[in-house]
Structure formats: C-alpha cells, structure tokens
Design a protein that fits this description.
By secondary structure, the chain is mainly α. It is built from five helices and three strands; from the N terminus they run ααβααββα. The chain is about 55% helix and about 10% strand. Strand 2 and strand 3 form a beta hairpin.
C-alpha cells in the first residue's frame, strides 16, 4: 500500500495472472459449487457428485483441475480419495461472494440476474 494510505500499488503481473487463473476456474458454477461443498468439510468424489448433482466423471474432472491449481488437495483413506480445500483464502472469497449474492436474493425476491458486461 502506498505511504499516503489512499492508493494501492499495482501487484506484479505474475500475481494478477495467478488471480485471473483462480477466478477463471471458479467461473464454472459446478467448480464453485464443489468449492462451496468442500468449504463445509472434506469429502470423496461420490459424495461430492451427489451433493452438487453432477456425474461422477465430470466432478472428478473438475476436482482434477482444482487440484492442479492447488485450490483443492487430496489424500488417500483406504480405497477412497478424500478431497479438501487447500487454499483457505479462496474459501473466504467464495463464501463472501456467494453469501452476498444469497443475501441480496433473499432481500429482493427476483431471479438472480447476470452481471452486465461480463458476457456471463
């Protein structure tokens, strides 16, 4: 942060690229739902698929992408692979964003609208 406390210095390009990659992965509602579920506690792929309503192979592919980005980690428990959040700061961002949107949806009972100018 700048000495005057009123402005912020630009982060290095590498940091911005890493943030953009993380946001890009979380731009998928399925991966966002998986992160939300894992923020509540560890789970195996079968339980996650049931919770997020996805097919087992699709959820497994999403987990692989999240794991490559080091947002999710895993460990073996017998024959099961158990997944967990590997970056608690990302959980903070996910909880904040989803929580804010959920609160707005409750306050104004209208369908969730797409953000303007995002192409979403």
């Amino acid at each position: 942060m700048a000495a005057d406390g009123g402005t912020f210095e630009d982060p290095p390009a590498e940091v911005l690229a890493e943030a953009a990659a993380a946001f890009g992965l979380l731009a998928s509602s399925a991966r966002l739902h998986i992160m939300w579920a894992l923020a509540q506690g560890e789970s195996d792929v079968s339980n996650l698929a049931g919770r997020v309503g996805g097919a087992l192979p699709a959820v497994s592919q999403h987990l692989a992408k999240l794991k490559l980005a080091r947002l999710v980690g895993s460990r073996r428990e017998g024959r099961r692979q158990v997944y967990f959040v590997d970056d608690p700061d990302v959980v903070t961002v996910v909880r904040l964003m989803v929580g804010q949107l959920a609160a707005r949806a409750e306050a104004v009972p209208t369908p969730v609208r797409r953000l303007r100018g995002t192409g979403a």
